[in-house]
Amino acid sequence: MELFITVTLLFAVVFAVLWWRALLGNWKMKREHAAQDMEELSYHERTRQRAEMLHRLVEGIEDGLFIISSRLTVLFVNRGAMKFFPPISTPVGRTLLECVRDHRIVEMVDGSVQSGQRQKQEFLVSSRGEGSGVEDRIFSVEAVPLNGDAPGGMEGGVLVILRDETEKHTLERIRKDFVANASHELRTPLSIINGYLENLVEGDISEPDETKRAFGIMRKHGDRLAQIVEDLLVISRMESGEPEAVRVEEFDFKACAQDVIHRLTPVITTKEAKVEVVLVDNCSPYIHGDRYYWDQILFNLVSNALKENLARGLQVTILLKQEGDISEIQVRDNGVGIPHADLPFVFKRFYRVARHHSKDIKGTGLGLSIVKRAVEAHHGTITVHSRPGIETLFTIRVPRAARG
Ligand code: ADP
C-alpha cells in the first residue's frame, strides 16, 4: 500500500513538473511571437515613415527630379520638375520627350543612358512662366546613371536633375554690365577732362572766352565723376549695415520734397515739367526718418522720372498719405514707363533698362538700389508699377513710429 502511495505521488510530481514546463514553454513562445510581431510592425512603420520622409524631401526640393528608364520612359517625377514644363496629366509612364518637349535634353539623357556616364549641360528653354505665360529660362540638366543595385526596373536608367539657373545668369549679367557701365561712365568724363587739359597745356586753347568755356565743361564732368563716386560710396556704406548709418528723427517731409524740387529746378524748367507735392487729406507733413536718406530717395526718384522722359510736359507727383501706423509715399510720373519684363530687376544694383529710350540717358544703375536700401534702412518697403507710355508709380511704406 505504501509503495502504491509513493509511486502515485512520484507520478503526480513528475506530471506536475512536465505540465509546468509545457506551460512555461508555451508562454515563452507566445512572448517571442508577440515580440516578433512588434518588431515586424515597427519595421513596417519605420519603412513607412522613411518612405514618407523621402517623399516629402523629394517633393520639397526646388530642383526638378526625373527617374528615366533605359528606354527613356518616365518612372518617377517630382513636383519641382513639372512646374518647368507644359502641364501634362500622369507623366509617369510617358516618354521623357512628351514631358520636357525638348529634343536636346532627351538626346543628352539618351547619351548618358548609352554611355553609362554622368553628363551635365545648360539649355535655354522656353518654359512655363508666371501664370499661363511662357518665358525663356536657363536650365542646367544633369543625368546621373543609376548603378546595378538600383531597385527593379531602374537598372540602366538615369536620374535627371533639373536646376533653374536663370537668376544666377541674370546676376552675372548685371555684374558684367555694371563693370562695363561703370567703366564707361567713369571713362567718358575723364577723357573729356583730359582732352581739354591737353588743349590747354599745348596752348590750343588760349582765348579767355574759350578757356573759360573749357573750364566750365571740365567742371561739369568733374561734378559728374564726383556724383558717380558718391553713389558708389553711399551704396557701399548702406550695404555695410553700419547701425550709425541711419539717424531717425521727425522731420518735415514736405519741406524735404520742396528742397529736392528746388535743386532740380533747372532740369524741370528745361523739360517744361511740372512737379508737385500733395498731402492727402491735409495730413501732417511730418514723418520719421533720416532726412539725409529721404533727400536721396526723393532726389533719385524724381530725377529718374525727369531723366528717363525726353518728351516735354511731364507731370510728376510726390504724394504723402498717413494711414494708421504707416506713412505712404508715392512718386508718380506719366512718362515712358518701365517695360514689364524689366520691373523685377530695376532695384538690383547696376541694373539699367535695356534702352527702350534714348542712348543719351546717363546713369550707373545705382539710383534705385540706393533708394531701396535707404527705404529698408527705415524698415520700410518699396514697390513699383508701370504701364509703359502711361505711368510709373513708386510706392514706399514706412512705419510712422521712430525705429532706429
Ligand atoms: P540709373 O542710374 O540708370 O538711373 P536707376 O537704378 O536709378 O539707374 O534706375 C534703373 C533703371 O530704371 C533706369 O535705367 C531706368 O531705365 C529705369 N527707370 C527708373 N525710374 C524710371 C522712370 N520713372 N521712368 C522710366 N524708367 C525708369
TrEMBL record:
<feature type="domain" description="Histidine kinase">
    <location>
        <begin position="181"/>
        <end position="402"/>
    </location>
</feature>
<protein>
    <recommendedName>
        <fullName>histidine kinase</fullName>
        <ecNumber>2.7.13.3</ecNumber>
    </recommendedName>
</protein>
<keyword id="KW-0418">Kinase</keyword>
<dbReference type="InterPro" id="IPR003661">
    <property type="entry name" value="HisK_dim/P_dom"/>
</dbReference>
<dbReference type="InterPro" id="IPR005467">
    <property type="entry name" value="His_kinase_dom"/>
</dbReference>
<dbReference type="InterPro" id="IPR036890">
    <property type="entry name" value="HATPase_C_sf"/>
</dbReference>
<dbReference type="GO" id="GO:0004721">
    <property type="term" value="F:phosphoprotein phosphatase activity"/>
</dbReference>
<dbReference type="GO" id="GO:0000155">
    <property type="term" value="F:phosphorelay sensor kinase activity"/>
</dbReference>
<dbReference type="Pfam" id="PF00512">
    <property type="entry name" value="HisKA"/>
</dbReference>
<keyword id="KW-0902">Two-component regulatory system</keyword>
<keyword id="KW-0597">Phosphoprotein</keyword>
<keyword id="KW-0808">Transferase</keyword>
<dbReference type="Pfam" id="PF02518">
    <property type="entry name" value="HATPase_c"/>
</dbReference>
<dbReference type="InterPro" id="IPR050351">
    <property type="entry name" value="BphY/WalK/GraS-like"/>
</dbReference>
<dbReference type="GO" id="GO:0016036">
    <property type="term" value="P:cellular response to phosphate starvation"/>
</dbReference>
<dbReference type="GO" id="GO:0005886">
    <property type="term" value="C:plasma membrane"/>
</dbReference>
<dbReference type="InterPro" id="IPR004358">
    <property type="entry name" value="Sig_transdc_His_kin-like_C"/>
</dbReference>
<dbReference type="InterPro" id="IPR036097">
    <property type="entry name" value="HisK_dim/P_sf"/>
</dbReference>
<keyword id="KW-0472">Membrane</keyword>
<dbReference type="InterPro" id="IPR003594">
    <property type="entry name" value="HATPase_dom"/>
</dbReference>
